[in-house]
UniProtKB/TrEMBL annotation, chain A:
The species this protein was found in: Caloenas nicobarica (Nicobar pigeon)
A Pfam family the protein falls into: WD40
One Gene Ontology CC term in the entry: MWP complex
Gene: Wrap73
Protein name (database record): WRP73 protein
Classification via SMART domains: WD40
Automatic annotation (TrEMBL), chain B:
One BP term from GO: cell adhesion
GO cellular component, one term: ciliary basal body
One Pfam family named in its UniProt record: ADIP
UniProt region (Disordered), positions on chain: 524-559
Domain of life: Eukaryota
The name this protein goes by in its record: ADIP protein
Organism: Caloenas nicobarica
Ranges in coiled-coil conformation: 126-213, 255-282, 369-396
Family: Belongs to the ADIP family.
Keyword hit for Protein biosynthesis: no
Amino acid sequence: MDFSELFKLSGLLGRFSPDGKCLASCVQFRLVVRDASTLQVLQLYTCLDQIQYIEWSSDSLFILCAMYKRGIVQVWSLEQPDWHCKIDEGSVGLVASCWSPDGRHILNTTEFHLRITVWSLCTKSVSYIKYPKACQQGIAFTKDGRYMAVAERRDCKDFISIFVCSDWQLLRHFDTETQDLFGIEWAPNGCVLAVWDTCLEYKILLYSLDGRLLSTYQAYEWSLGVKSIAWSPSSQFLAIGSYDEKVRILNHVTWKKITEFEHPATIANTKTIVYKEVEKSLSVETERLSFPPTRALASSLFSTQSKYDVSQVPVSLQYIKPVADRANPKMGIGMLAFSPDNCFLATKNDNIPNAVWIWDIQKLKLFVVLEQLCAVQSFQWDPRQPRLAVCTGNSKVYLWSPAGCVAVQVPLEGDFQIVSLSWHASGDSMALLSKDNFCMCYLEREEV
Amino acid sequence: MGDWKAITVPVLSSDSKNIFQYTSAKKVSPSSMNSQVLRLPLPSSKSTHGFFSAFCTEENIEQSVSYLDRELTTLGFPSIYAESKGKELNLISIINCMNELLVLQHKNLRAQEEVEIQHLKLGSDMEHLQNCYAKLKEQLELSKREIVGLQERDRQLQSKNRNLHQLLKNEKDEVQKLQNIISSRATQYNHDMKRKEREYNKLKERLHQLVMNKKDKKIAMEVLNYVGRADGKRGAWRTDKTEARNEEEMYKVLLSDYEQRQKQLLVENAELKKVLQQMKKEIISLLPPQKQKPKERSEDGPVLSDLEEDIGELNKENMWELSCETVREQLTNSIRKQWRMLKNHVEKLDNQVSRVRSGALNEKDVISREDHELETEKLELEIQQCKEMIRTQQQLLQQQLMSPCDDDTTLILQDCYLLEERERLQEEWRLFREQKKNFEKERRSFTEAAIRLGLERKAFEEDRGTWLKQQFLSMSTDCKHSENVTAPSAFLGSSDQDNRLAISTSQRKPHCVLSVPVSPEPCQMSQYITHNSSSAASKTPAGDSKSNQWVERDKEETE
């Protein structure tokens, strides 16, 4: 594994281009586009205000930079650095901005979710979508980019509108049986839309592309409900993580639950492998010490190496019970991700923040538990193979694959607390992001 | 009872001391009694005298004797007097009486002993029984106390149980109440939320209006130049057609997805059906054949016959293609039945094995382990032997093929081979020649037969001709003036032959006509006659002249 040096970053805005050639990063109001393999600066753009959000267009030719405070979206072209485009929402305000799948339209959500404006880069036309729903995931595009589902709310009722992305024609408009729609997500095959309700009500609705209600699933009443959902890449399974620390898996044939994954604090099954991160203490020979201490020596003294040990089952994990009288408690399944080959599911129980649970989907059983020393910040699967990268807010990156797992210390000076990571599309490298910096990690083919 | 009751005589008050001494001593033990009895006469003469003088002194001898006599007679003993009245004592009777009394005394003593023994026994028995009784009473007391204790505990537990039930009910009621409270609060909140949301919507609308009204010039997009579409095409107007097209596309997408899924499911189904079929075959093969066990047959008879029918039906390959309900049900039912049979079979085997292990009856179809092992050993030996044989044979063969190392042997061998071949060839030649001769013979015989056949045919024809002539003649004699006769006779002449010929020709005419109607008659006739002549030519020369005549005549006729 090779690591690049640190580069400045702000707002955790480091994104690979969809074609994998470039890496865009933001430093305050500057947008830096680098080559993904050499990290050489290809382009440098300056925006009018601090950038809050960047997104590549699907053909990797344009980048949009959104500045919510000023209500401006600036679009830059990679082919023609002189080209510029500025969309000013003015007094309407800007809350969210995103590309359409064809890479030629920008959807801006105005403040208070008054409307969504569809700006076209090809023509002078502007479209409006009224009454968008103010929720976490209100807009969803199908994987092939043909259709867009928008959640709307009129007269205290939730609706969903399906638009055809090629000409923005309204295809279907139907109401949903939700109290307060929280999110929508298309299945990877683009034929089923999962709609779930607010956490006060456990309800998942599945709609077909043509607006028919296929099925409703409700596991229980009254307790806090759905926290996160994930589709499997083949659209076969829908994993629902809820506040009761369980993941329920629905199958695409009957839309009924096929299994429940529990996340207890004590793991008793002997077939589960538990990797525990332990610190290796470095022994420093006193003769080698010199004054003033060299930089390398200092960093090696104060950084702790760690490795994974296989713990003997039964293992008891650190369980945190959140305060009962606060809203949005840190409990339940907060993160869910399927591996790209559909064989594994990685979950995180917010009650046990130091552990990542990996489930074998072929056997529907718990396969591996990674117990870290610090709370897990994020994890992401390699887009090509079943390899999981985990970061816990320190300067180590952890990789797991069915062959084993490894903890790698990023050999950089200074404080580098990895809060987020992002894989390159080829699976050969990844970007490790911290609050102020980022670095690239290059993996060899045979690694792990 | 160790009293000497019989001896208490009121007269002997002075010596009662002695007697009481003795009587008191008597109570000690029965064994001492005898010694006392024996000791009685032994004490000093003074005391004996004293004892005996207590009853009979020198003064009252007669009174005491008479008294004794009276007592003895009342007891049933004979009198001690010599005669009934008189003072002379009968010594013998006295001695007898004494003996009798002694005997009686002994008997009494023994009886007394026995009684005393029994008395003791009964006493000890009584003690024992009293002890038992006491113990049982104690046990009874204990058990009663235990029962009471257990009853108490039972009561306590029941009351606890009731309490817990009550608690559970209370909890359930509370839970229900809380749920009701939650639901009511939820509806209240929803209502409030809706109210606030409506207000919020109103605000939003107002804001929207204000913003729109302002016609903010700033809401605009500045772009250097418009960019071409990603797919290079121009934008299209939105029309009904495009709407319809979009709908169509959407349905196509959905349909293709469903079709794909259905294909996958069909493939899966087919695989599973195959697996089930395989399983079925294997289960059938595992089940024991029916010939051996009549018992089993009676049990499984009807089931098996159904099975066989099922097998017959379902093993047809084309049945697998159908996916209708009945086939599926049949398949699963048949597999279930067979699986059950297999299970029973395995259970039976298990039972048999366990029985054999426990050393019970050895059924004929259960091969004991030792026999089985012997068999396997035997088979292994056989296999070994066969392998060795094969190996030796192979070696020999190789030797054969490879052994000729010196030239002489090779030459000789080659010669041998050549000789062999030559002899074989000669044999074959011989056979061939023989066959050839046979063929010649047959051919000759065939040709002879053909010649004979030809001759016979000619003869036959001649016979036929003569027969026909005869017939004609016979016919002509019946009717003299027939046209058939005159016409040819004028033409050909008057000889019988001619007549015959005429008849024959005339007869032949229709015959010829019938046989080959197309060709003209004279030609046919000539053909026929020439044919006849050729056949006749092969016959005896006698016939030749006739035919020649015929031919000439016919030639004339035709000309």
